[in-house]
Amino acid sequence: MAAALVERPARTVAPGGSARNRGKRRVSRWLVWNKWTPYLLILPAVLMELLIHVIPMLVGMWMSFIGLTQFFITNWATAPGVGFGNYRIALNFNNSLGEKLVQSFGATLGFTLLVVGISFIFGISASLMLQHNFRGRGLLRTVFLIPYALPAYAGIITWKFMFQRDNGLINEFLVNTLHITDDAPFWLIGGNAFVAVVIVAIWQQWPFAFLMTMAGMQGIPDDLHEAASIDGANIWQRIRYITLGMMRPINAVLLLLLFLWTFREFNTPFVLFGPVPPDSANLLTVNIYSSSFIQWNFGLGSAMSVLLMLFLVVIAGGWALWNRRVNRNA
Amino acid sequence: MKFRILTVGLAATAALTLILAGCSPATPAPTSSSNEGVTLKYWASNQGASLQDDANILRPELDKFKKRTGITVELDVVPWSDLTNNTLAAAVSGQGPDVLNIGNTNAVTFQSTGAFYPFDSAALDILGGKDRFIASSFATGGAKGQNPTSIPLYSQVYGLFYNIQMFKDAGLTPPTTWEELVQTAKAFTKPAENKYGIVIPGGTVNASMHFSYILGAQNDGSPFDANGKPTFTSDGMVAGVMRYVNLLSKDHVVNPSAVQYTDYTQPAGDFARGNVAMYMAQTTSRNVLTKNGMDASAYGVVPIPAPTGGKNISSFVGGTNISIFKNSKHISAALEFVKFMTSDEEQEILNRAYTALPVVNGVQATAFADQPAQLATWSQILTKQAIPMALVPGVQAFQANVGGAVVALIAKAATGAAISKDDVRSALQGAQDKMGATG
């Protein structure tokens, strides 16, 4: 608004003036703030987005096409181009590296489905429970959110201590308190490691599901529930058809986010198991890290990461299509 | 308000751009003749029982250096678990310390990055010439036929520590062959009393590589052929790794909990508490054992025995080297610092504090003055029974892959799986495939 006022005097100075003045006027109109303010306001965000997301992503893709090994890390420009060589190595399923990748992909898929499914059920159950006002509701809500508020590393390291074989809390409880087994099991190696990593990941993820579903439920008008009660719907029918029905778009987004985040989870397995995870819990991101970056082969690591990204893009794209169809049918 | 936000945003963007532009590697300025007033950044490795222990040992020496030369040294002690990654990050970004310690097993890998200052003959002359150094230690500084990019600082080798009192009580003598070692270990193993024959750092990647290398060499195996190509699955390597894994899976002389030991202080604790009778570790472990309350008179040291008919090898030449970053703006000050650290005087002081072996000829290993028998054993291992670590660029990847594969085998053994020779071979094949992928 202020800009428009500033501009007015310029127009009065040259009423129907010369060609030069007309040109000037066009320039001054060109500079109308009203028109440019939105773009200028968004410019820092665009620059930051480029700087933080887009450029590193493009650099990562470029890295996947060069043989960036220890010999070239001080001067990337000298690294030889290898075309799709890195991708061929990553997708060669005939050697142990490829076998491991397939096995790791399977483990990651199982891990993701379990973590997302259970986190979602926990989250939505807790939200349903906290819909009604009762004493201690605020306290419970806070307690439920603690895992989400804790720094991830601190939480995972605490779990790591609890899962220790000889002096961990879990074994102390199972062996010495409950006497379920006499021989203390290992939790961080062997097959149990999968259970351990799933438990820790659920512990971290479910508060987010809780937060989202709780917010969603608060947006459902009470009238609907009242109307349904009058029509004779019981509590289960109201949950099924009103709560869950109204929350469908929120749940769809929530499940997608949880899936994407969980599938590319790195912190949890890495902090729990270090660079050599047991086969059962050899998740994709750690597998990529230990079969490329730890060998200082950044080209191969980038290629594997790009493949992981493509897979997640396909999932997200498939989700978008499915979602559009569902919305159209609704 | 609109405009102010905009200005702030633009200013922040501009500032960030400037900062990022400033991050590009600076060309080294020509070094001046006087280094007075220069500040060097130094990353020291964790040699002592704790990071603080290191700082306490090094601080007085760095102050002494400042008094003599006017050069300030900013000290950062970096744990081993981070040192390789931090060094790698410094090499990639060109932003690192001026001087840093490296594990000498990684020397050739670091050399191949080109991020480190090669010590040519002029630079070596400043340090007093390469003949000042013990030849086997000096050879760890880089690949053959190239100017080394690291200079030895502390030297150490592996030995077999044994608890004198426990051996006396059992009427046993320290083993001289691997078979005797296993027999002796069995005699000590009583799981019900939480007593075991020997302890291994089962979850530690680099130590697992060390034992694969030493035990493999005893079986006449080598991880690399003459051309530097990996040969992890050669019979010797498989046999060596098999013996190591068997300690847990077949001989059952190791506490299965040891598979979760991810650093070298945990096994030292078991040994110091008398829960195990034997302990394979490097010279500097004396420091950690002392900190754990075990006096040097309570244990003896013998070479890690080879199997009957095997090669008389019991260690590689281990140790810590010191390097200068090529990007340093203070190369001449850095050289002066390396000269100081490798001087006779500092070699004596530092190796005494760290209970390591000096790397220059003529300096006594005063740390072991009170234990002449141990000193004699260490000297014998270093001079007669130690081989160099593989001096190939892929040695860091060898450490990560073979060390990782052995850690995984040990973990499988601990969860009850029987480990066969084929399992060992296929694990090592997996490690070798990764090497192939990385060229």
Keywords:
heterodimer, A: 330 residues, mainly alpha, MetI-like fold, 72% helix, 0% strand, B: 439 residues, alpha/beta, D-Maltodextrin-Binding Protein, domain 2, 2 domains, five-stranded mixed sheet, 11 strands, disordered N terminus
Describe the overall structure.
The complex is a heterodimer of chains A (330) and B (439). Chain A is mostly helical. In chain A, 72% of the residues lie in helices and 0% in strands. Chain A contains 15 helices and no strands. In chain A, helix 14 (284-291) runs antiparallel to helix 15 (298-329). Chain A is flat. Mean pLDDT of chain A is 84; it is low at 1-17. Mean pLDDT of chain B is 88; it is low at 1-32. By secondary structure, chain B is α/β, with parallel strands linked by helices. Chain A binds chain B through residues 37, 40-41, 43-45, 47-48, 51, 67, 69-71, 73-75, 89, 95-97, 100, 164-166, 186, 188-191, 274-276, 278-279, 290-292, 294-297, 300, and chain B through 2, 5-6, 9-10, 12-13, 16, 88, 91-92, 94, 109, 112-115, 203, 205, 256-257, 259-260, 262, 326, 393, 396-397, 400-401, 404, 407-408, 411-412, 414-415, 426, 429-430, 433-439.
